[in-house]
Amino acid sequence: MDRDSTAQADREGAIPLVQPGDVPGILFQTGYDRLYAADAAGAARAFRLACAADPGSGEAWGALADSTRDAGEAAGALAACGRAVALDPAVWPWRIALAEALRAAGRFEEAVTTGQVLTAERPDSATARLGLARALAAAGRRDAALEEYREAVALRPGDRETALELAALLVEAGDALGAVELLQPLSRRDPEDADLHAAVGRAWIALQEPVKALTALRRAEGLDSDGRLGCAALIAALEGGAGEDLSAAYVRALFDRYADRFDQDLVGKLGYSAPALLREAVDRLGPASEHGASGLRVLDLGCGTGLAGVAFRPLAAHLAGVDLAPRMVEKARARALYDELSVGDVVAAVEAVPGAWDLLVAADVLVYLGHLTALFAGAAKALRPAGRFAATVERLEDAAGAGYALGPSRRYAHSEAYLREMAAAAGLTVLLMEPCSPRREKGVGVPGLLFIVEKPAA
Predict the structure, then answer these.
(1) Model confidence, pTM
(2) Element (H, E) at 440
(3) What H or E segment, with its residue span, contains residue 266?
(4) pLDDT band for position 155 (50/70/90)?
(5) How far is CA 50 from CA 29, 40, 61, 341, in A?
(6) Which contiguous run of DSSP H or E holds residue 279?
(7) How far apart are CA 191 and CA 197, in angstroms?
(8) Are 49 and 12 in contact (CB under 8 A)?
(9) Per-residue b/e over 417-434, b at no fewer than 16 CB within 10 Å?
(10) CB-neighbour burial class of residue 379 (10 A; exposed 0-12, middle 13-18, buried 19+)
(11) Residues whose CB is less than 8 angstroms from the CB of residue 304 and which lie 6 or more positions away in sequence, other chains included
């Protein structure tokens, strides 16, 4: 280090004039002192001089990488990391830092490749897994990122930062229920952590659980003195009535998790009989379609694993099914009953092809909908003349005239008056409306209603 460089160092950062042999140690000490004092820019200046004084020092380049990263200099951090790793590839923290620097510099695929090498070498490293998860998420590879985040959380279950990042990605991917299950134990363990409570609140919003969301968000707001988490606006929106219905995200997450044991639990434990009840009622009324009793175009709304498909396949020349949960649709496809299956929303499904169906079936599906206006209107458009819509609901004894209500089991109940009102508004005629019990709960039959409505003949 020449005299001019030393003089400039003295002007820039009050680095004392020293003898040449002492320069590296003094510069290192100065750099770390400034890092500890949260002066990342000053630390970076000192470490640059240390690198100039000893360009073969991997430690100097590694320290420069840390300080330039903290100073927000992505390009500088990447260059310094590269030099450090080139000088000593065996130093694990420098290689981890290089992967992070690549991501911070926007070189996402290179960050992914570097992270994959690191996790292959040390699959039990939570730090490497987290770095790869972040790189994959930045590269838009969400499913792969979720896998790596889950590995990182499993390796380091108490790490709130990793859990918060995973939870945010789960909400984005439509699994807000998974986010709640991940974060709630952490928030109970650390009840003063505003970020955890805010994240739980946002997940409940995605699930359209306003009461639970408000509880979490108010807790977060009380801990967030400077308002950095933005809870006040969310609270105001919820208090204004936002989020009163169940969300597709909740239903999809619930049934994707339930798919493997759905049939066993529903039929074996809960005595699920909605498909059989609907088939018996349809048979009792007799065919109304010109295609007779076995040539119908049937759409199974909320088909699940295909239990209603088993009941209605004998009536169908063409049987289609739609469900929000991809894994449930996979189970239905394995039955080889359906001519057509899709993942999607039931309202969108009935709106998709006007005049296409002789029979719409919704076995124990309307319990996940509150307002039925859009569904009935869509059904009226979807049906052919003299086509029918058959469904079960849980029964609401509606003294207050609300029409429907969300129960403690997170299932909606609907009143007979409301169903008749919906049918009339959609121009559908009620052919049948009768009590039923579509399943048991705690050993007791759940009060329900079965209805069949018909579109007028042309």
Answers:
(1) 0.55
(2) strand 440-441
(3) none
(4) very high
(5) 10, 15, 8, 65
(6) helix 274-285
(7) 8
(8) no
(9) ebbeebbeebebeebeee
(10) buried
(11) 255, 262, 323, 325, 328, 331, 332
